[in-house]
Amino acid sequence: MTQLDDITVKDVDVLVIGGGTAGPMAAITAKEKDPSASVMLLEKANVKRSGAISMGMDGLNNAVIPGHATPEQYTKEITIANDGIVLQKGVMEYAERSFDMIQKLDNWGVYFQKDETGEYDVKKVHHLGTYVLPMPEGHNIKKILYRRLRRNRVQVENRYQAIRLMKDESGAVSGCIALGTRDAEVIVIRAKAVVLCTGAAGRIGLPASGYLYGTYENPTNCGDGHSMAYHVGAELSGLECYQINPLLKDYNGPACAYVTGPLGGYTANANGDRFIECDYWSGQMMMEFYNELQSGNGPVFLKLDHLAEETIQEIEDVLHTNERPSRGRFHDGRGNDYRTKMVEMHISEIGFCAGHSASGVWINEKGETTVPGLYGAGDMASIPHSYMLGAFVYGDICGANAVEFAKHRDLPTLDETFILREKQRILAPLKRSDGIPPNQFEYKLRRFVNDYLQPPKITKKMDIGLQRLKDMEQDIEFLYARDPHELLRANEAQHVYDCALMAAHASMYRQESRWGLYHHYVDYPQTNNDDWFCHVQLYKSEDNQMACKKRPIDPYVVELDEEEKTAYQKMRIQQVS
Amino acid sequence: MPTATQISMVPVVVDNEKCIADKGCRTCIDVCPLDVLWIDEKTGKAHMRYDECWYCMPCEADCPTDAVTVNIPYLLR
Question: What is the structure's pLDDT at A412?
């Protein structure tokens, strides 16, 4: 350990930022591959209960299991669900490793549902293939990961918010600057390789309830990684392909087509009729959901009241003990009973999340971002529809590649001027005696996002929205924090701010409509494959401006049949009685 | 720019009779992802200091004495 001015500098071989799902796996794999390497896992909360799966998970949404699905078939399905805009090599890499990861987790003690013959009990939810594997005991998954972290002697640092990544003169990543969330101490972690696993950017939009923390995503996942990647010069991709999910109205948890669908539950309109063919979350499905909400048949409901008592008990058992266990309490308060009435649903606020859609920090099939030594995995990185299992698989890939990268590198040199300037900037809200509280700044920012940036997207509205956001830039130097906790929120709010700007820039750049509701651009209502069959990459230009450019789609490794290409376009049931 | 302090009803309730934070327990404080549970300096017990709750329930599930109850935040009920 060294000192820089009065700043503590910790040196490690591999730094993993984010201890939710992908992060622990990356850290464990790095140590397994090279037990002599020093590996630090930095977490804003506590790795025992952090990230999207803090209370576990009720199933795998994308298990590619021999006998039920092939990697080729899965790669096709995700290509189609994502309107062709995918790095297929990246999806294929996931699909080919999916089954090995399931077996690894199984060996670690994660219980997956098996049928009477002892085979994995895979369910069909997707439009074409069969990939959903229930985890009725999924509430203990964080405990199992934690045990592995201890066993492999990963150095865990809880309650630090990573704020800025650093790079050396060669342009390779050199570590990060972090803030102690309880003592406001700024520290530097110098690393030969960094794996970013900070989860979705779930605090860009404001939930309909108006409660800042009533988000779909765990609100700790506020876009720290997206902002850090942007500022260090990495490209982000597909940010215009927002995450928007169908949720229980007000509660903002998923209605869980994946759990209830295989048991006979479905999404219905006010008449109790099905209106979509497939409840698997896609932009096209969300478009139909949105249309139904706006129509005379709205609002939209989760329908279970036709099911048998024992089926409903099974559903309650899974839904009320895993992932979002407060759901039962919400229903009790409202007098909702799955047996007697349908439960109202609504659409979520916008966000960036590759786990469900396709927006995030660009990575290739090796987990590499466009900055040497910087890797990314999980909801934050750009491999689409990857869910929890994708986070584990890419965590594993990144852990292995990061520790290999670190082997061939000396400890990088640090840019002292940059560190001292950042320290001052990070701590500034705490030095003021009055000003704008972080919660007010964030509320206003996110309300503007709802007013101007959520779909349907309209150029004039997004112009105004962008102007409002730019006007708020001058408010940043008035942010005021009374204690370390409020300082954490002030720094988070600035990352949310960056994400909102990115959402506006990427959306206005792609002048077509694609992915159903996710990028429903009213000025350009058609999909335009001639001009826009490409990724949109967002990056910081040399003059420090937010810029976008096209990136061609890499040649497919699995070709699609003509008929399959439009499968996800036919979501609406043709004859609703 | 002067500021005001407004009150808000918080979702997490701690039963001071059951809470053993004054004997050194920090379980709920450790596991809260949003870091909103702190020690009340007057009582030595855990309490919710910031109204920033995701109603995710590790605090309640992991409490060794069943002292913690997570309610749905008022705005969402």
Answer: 97
Candidates A55, A182, A251; nearest CB to B56: A55
Contact at CB, A55 and B62, closer than 8 angstroms:
no
Query: DSSP character for A344?
Result: E
CA distances from A499 to A43, A376, A447 (A): 20, 17, 14
Do the Cβ atoms of A51 and B33 come within 8 Å?
yes
Q: Do A250 and B76 count as a contact with CB atoms less than 8 A apart? A: yes
Structure tokens belonging to residue A89: 């090599």
The C-alpha of B33 sits at a distance from chain A's nearest C-alpha, in angstroms, of 5
Residue A330 and residue B71: Cβ atoms within 8 Å? no
For the segment A77-88, what is each residue's pLDDT rounded down to a tens digit?
A: 999 999 999 999
Q: What is the pLDDT, as a whole number, of residue A126? A: 79
Instruction: Give the number of beta-carbon pairs within 8 Å between A and B.
Output: 91
Q: What is the dihedral of CA A168, A497, A505, A456, to 10 degrees?
A: 150
Q: Which domains does chain A have, with CATH numbers?
A: 2-243+351-416 (3.50.50.60), 249-347 (3.90.700.10), 428-541 (1.20.58.100)
**Which residue pairs, CB below 8 angstroms and at least 24 apart, start in A362-366?**
A362/A234, A362/A235, A362/A236, A362/A237, A362/A535, A362/A537, A363/A90, A363/A394, A364/A87, A364/A89, A364/A90, A365/A87, A365/A89, A365/A90, A365/A92, A365/A93, A365/A397, A366/A397, A366/A401
The domain B20-65 is placed in CATH, from the list 3.30.70.20, 3.50.50.60, 3.40.640.10, 3.40.630.70, at 3.30.70.20
Flag residues of chain A having pLDDT under 70.
1-3, 256, 575-577
Q: What is the pLDDT of residue A1?
A: 55
End-to-end CA distance of chain A: 71
The whole-number pLDDT of residue A577 equals: 43
